[in-house]
Fold this protein.
Amino acid sequence: MHGETLAPKKMVQKTIIEPFRIKSVEPFRLSSESERSAFLKAADYNPFLLSSDQVMIDLLTDSGTSAMSANQWAGIINGDEAYAGSRSWLKMQAVVKDLTGFEFILPTHQGRAAERIIYGLVGGKGKTFISNTHFDTTRANIEFSGAEAIDIPIENATDPSWIHPFKGNLNTEKLEKIILEKGAGNVGAVILTVTNNSGGGQPVSMANTREVSRICRKHGVLFMLDCCRVAENAYFIHLREEGYSGKTYKEIAQEMFSLTDGAVMSAKKDALVNMGGFLALKDKDIANECKSLLIITEGFTTYGGLSGRDMEAIAIGLEEVFDADYLTYRMKSTAYLGDHLNKMGVPLMLPIGGHAVYIDAKQFYPHIPVDQYPGQALACELYVKGGIRSVEIGSVMFGKYDSMGKLIPASMELVRLAIPRRVYTQSHMEYVIETFEILLEDRKNVRGMKITEEPKFLRHFTAKFEKLDQV
Ligand code: F0G
C-alpha cells in the first residue's frame, strides 16, 4: 500500500465562527407565548408599537442596531467635541475620502438627512429620479421636493423565486429610454442602491454599475450611489463576478465609487455605528450649495448632526467593516438562516440577500388574500410564537387605495428578518429556525388582518390592526 492512503485524513473545520469575543452583554427577558399574545394585542397587532423589552430577538432592522467593537467604544471616549475643526471629523473625513475618492464630504445625522439635502437641491417639480429601487426615505424626500421617483430593477427582480447573481441590478435599457423620454436636463439623478434593500437586499454587479455610469456620463446626468451596504455588496462581487476574486472588498467598493458622481450613506448599516451618515460629492459647486443647506438644517460643516464621538466611531467602523473575516462571518450568518429556512420549505426571496432574509408571505399563507395582509399576519405569528420581531414589507407598507377605496396591493408581500451586525449568535438563529418549524405546522390555522386605524403617510409605523376570524 502507498503511504498516502495510510496517512490520517487532515480535518478542516467547516464552521464559520463569529470572529469576536463578547465583552459586554445586554440581557433580554424570556417571555411566554401567552404574555406575548397580550403584549401584541395591546400593541394593536403592530410590532412597531411593541416596546423592545417585550421582544426577545429583534430583527426589525439592521439599521443602527450594530454592536460596536472595543476599538469603537475606545473611540467614543476619544471623541473630540469641538464645534469647529474637530479631530474626530478630520479622521472621519480622511476615511470617507479614502474610501469614496470624493473631495467633498458632508457629515449628517443619518442617511435621510443627506438625502434631503442633495435630492431637495437637485429635485423639485418636473424632475425625475431613476433607481434600481428607491428606499422609502429616498422616495419620500424626492416626492416631498415635488419630483417623481421611478424604480427600474431588472426584469423578474420582483419574482421571489427567480435566481440571479445580481438581482439588484438596474435595467439599463429602460434607463436610457427614460432619460431620452424625459430629457436629460429633467433627470435629477440616477441612484443605485447597493445592496438593493427594498428589492430583497440583492447585490448590484460592477458591470451594471459601469453601464449605468456610461449612460449617465453620455447624457450628463448626476449618478449617485446609495452606499449604506456597500461592503456587503462588495462581498457578493468578490464571490460572484468574474475578475474580482483577487481584489480586496475595499478595492471593489472603491472601484464602484469611482464610477459615480457622489454617494449618500446611512452609516447606521455598514459603518457599524448606531447613528450617523454622510454625503460625498465630486462637484465643488453642488457641494457648496449642499454645505449651505447642511449648516441651516444639520449643523456646521465639521460635525453635521453628529457628536465628535459618533464621527470617531464611524471612522473606525468604516475600516472594520471591510475586514475579510468579519464580512465572511456576516454574510455566512445571513445565509445560514436563509439556507435552513429554504431547506425547510419556507418560501423566500432568492437568492439570500446580504443583510436580511425575506419571506414570501403570499406563498407562506396562500389562503390569506392580499387585502387581508398575509405579511402582517406572519410578522404577528413570528412574534407570538417566538418573541421575534420582524417587519412587513408588502401591502401594509406600500399598498395604496384606488378612488373606490379598494386596495392596490404592493408588488410583493414580504416579511423581512433583518440581522443586526455582530449582535446575535448562531444559537439565536437556530431558535429562529425552530420557531419557523412551529409556524409551518400551524400555517393553515392562521387568519388575515384588518386595518382599523391608519395615518395618511407611512402607515406601517402606527397603523392599528385586528385579527380576522375567517378568511
Ligand atoms: N437608504 C437605504 C438603502 C436604507 O436602507 C436606509 C435605511 C436609508 C437609505 C435611510 O437611512 O435610516 O439612516 O435615514 N434603512 C433602514 C432599514 C431604516 O430598516 O432598512 P437612515
Q: What stands out?
A: DSSP finds 17 helices and 16 strands in the chain. The longest strand covers residues 187-193. The chain has a mean pLDDT of 95.
